[in-house]
Amino acid sequence: MRDMAEMLSELRVAxxxxxxxxxxxxxxxxxxxxxxxxxxxxxxxxxxxxxxxxATAVMAVTVSMGGQSGxxxxxxxxxxxxxxxxxxxxxxxxxxGAQPAGxxxxxxxxxxxxxxxxxxxxxxxxxxxDTSTIVARGAAAQGGFDRGIAVTLTGDAQFPANEQPEKVxxxxxxxxxxxxxxxxxxxxxxxxxAGHRLQVxxxxxxxxxxxxxxxxxxxxxxxxxxxxxxx
Length: 231
Prior knowledge:
The protein has helices at residues 4-16, 24-85, 210-218; strands at 92-94, 103-104, 107-109, 113-117, 122-125, 149-153, 166-170, 173-179, 185-191, 197-203, 221-222. By secondary structure, the chain is of the alpha+beta class. Residues 11-19, 50-87 and 137-141 have low confidence and may be disordered.
């Protein structure tokens, strides 16, 4: 926009040339309109800047929140994974305790306690198991077979009719590994070199894999005192 000096100079030139003089009121009105236009333009520019800044701030907040949300999801995933890794993992360890009367074993799950070692049954349970109701005789079956890893003679036990047990190798001999009737435990049955028909029972909730069950059975031997449990 032209300044006042330039406009007055033009007025003087116009007056000197003999042209009709311009009314000063008209000039002042034009200058006022020009100033108002300039102020309005500056306001629009400033307003646009504020909107741009605000929009940038909103985008920054959105990105930040999105990042936090993603981090939360990753954190939950890590927490879930950590929870899975922190689950109890069963490892077999060499057994150095007193050997049971009916069954000898080479390994037991690490940290587990042997609570039955009779001619009728061998039973080891995880740490923290309530053993107050586990009977010492025979089948310990009335109070313990659903809590630990058990060894007995098979007796008349048979796999359910609808179960197709898997053939496995137990210390060089063929065994059968399959689910019990209620599907809550695994049975491993095999015959040893002396003709004993042995059975290992492991509830699924204890976390042993099929291979661990077989590895445990590899170290099981029935003695001459092994007897089929009663009731």
